[in-house]
Design a protein that fits this description.
Distance between the termini: 56 Å
Pfam family, one: DUF2388
Protein name: Holliday junction resolvasome, helicase subunit
Shape: elongated
Strand content: under 5%
Radius of gyration: 19 Å
Number of helices: 5
Keywords: Signal
Largest sheet: none
Order of helices and strands: HHHHH
InterPro entries: CHP02448
Number of domains: 1
């Protein structure tokens, strides 16, 4: 009986953790796609945020940031994040990770 109960509890825990992981991945994908669409937003001057020199210059920093899971934060990435957040209201609540991934998704 104890072994059956342990098996059921273990199986339930595995299923729950798998569901949580899938939910996290799905949420991440939604945020990245939303930010990606936002970066394609055209400003009043008809230039895309994505084509901004500041954002383009931050691609290497964004790659380092994503690869290091946020440990490496370059000055160009910081400038790009500030620019994006100041020009795109939807990006103000996005995480740095999501914005860095969107910069790389070009």
């Amino acid at each position: 009986m104890y072994r059956s109960l342990l098996t059921v509890v273990t199986a339930t825990a595995l299923i729950a953790s798998s569901a949580q992981a899938q939910t996290l991945v799905a949420t991440s994908n939604v945020i990245v796609r939303a930010v990606d669409r936002t970066l394609d937003f055209t400003s009043d001057t008809t230039t895309s945020i994505r084509d901004s020199k500041v954002v383009l210059a931050a691609r290497d920093d964004a790659a380092s940031f994503v690869a290091s899971q946020g440990t490496i934060r370059g000055a160009q990435l910081e400038a790009a994040l500030k620019t994006i957040r100041s020009q795109v209201s939807d990006a103000q609540n996005a995480s740095d990770q999501a914005l860095a991934e969107a910069i790389l998704a070009r």
